[in-house]
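thought: fold this chain, then report.
action: predict
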Amino acid sequence: NLVLLLDVSGSMTGNAEVTQQAVAVIVSNLRQGDTFSLVTYSSEDRVVLDGFSVSSAQDKEILMGMLLTLEIDGGTWGSAGIETAYRLGAEHYQDNCNNQVILITDGDLNFGITKKDGLRQLIEEKKKSNLFLSVIGTGLWNYKGDKLETLSKHGNGTYCVVNSLDDVEES
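observation:
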């Protein structure tokens, strides 16, 4: 049960190629029977896929095609995206499985909850749902790693930074 939470705000423009590569790695590792949801956020959050069940390699190609058509624009309302991603993760929760939200962002949050303490409180409340939050940080010029470390640490997940295609392969 994987929920991909993808920052598609204007600050991600320079990170598009690396982000697409990171998403391609995630999608390529999906297995038959996995449940995949996709939430994007910019000035608002949007559910792109809700509980898609992967049944074939062709499904992975369809997912990648959808992801490649996403447009980057607007502000960054990350906390709304987090709320929606956790809601979907809880709806599709599977016992004895990896239930996880994976956030890909530069961490530049400028709407909703934006301070580290507020984000920590939000994630500590959300982790009670037994969903893990892992964070893939990307970006060079506007990167907010301190916020991303706080999110992953308090979400019982992992944290890595990818800024080049080599970084994606190593992670």
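thought: worth noting. The two ends are 20 Å apart (CA to CA).
final: tokens above.
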